[in-house]
Design brief:
single chain; about 220 residues; 6-stranded antiparallel beta sheet; elongated; about 30% strand; alpha+beta; 4-stranded antiparallel beta sheet
Length: about 220
Amino acid sequence: MPLRGKGGKSGFTLIELMIVLVIIMVLASVATFTYISQIEQITLRSDVRELIGALEMAKMRAIASGEPHGVVFIRGTGDEPDAFFVYRDCTPGDQRFTDPDGNPRNNIWSDDCSAITYDPKLREGGLIELQRDDHFTTVFGGEDASNSVIWGTGATHEYVQFNNLGQAFKNGNLINGEFIFMQNQNNTGGGDKVDQVGVRIFGATGSIEYVPLTVADPV
């Protein structure tokens, strides 16, 4: 209880002050934890919004130009983050993304298909890197980027391509309601679950659906 000092003025005991300090520290820790978790969710939502924008751009360009366009999803290696970009199909006969050297990061921008033998970025500086600690976990039903089930042995990328009707394909086959998910590698949600967010693509109609924040096992 407050003590009275000289002159009748009241004060607090050392124990009371220590209790107040402990309460402040606990509240500060909770606030910091909540803030970090919210920041991670914000970065995930920001990345998926950019991805949806890229997918919509590829679809609209394919419809407007009559030429296939698509989006490439790139696995990060070393210090490189996962990334994606919109491409123009300069080799339309194969109905897929063409990259002879297996490294789509170095595909340059070009507006002259007759001069190249690969599929270039849609515009100069078109590579979009995921924000720090964010990465692709599921691409069209497969596992994370390090798993060869989806990426193929030694592969570094996946893709989706739209035709002049706005339909979505992969390897010449219609994509049927398949997902692309992202998660944050340093998620602080606690336990053995993490937040993830993503996109679902319906190939026949070319519709692109935002998948709200969900909870999943970390990958």
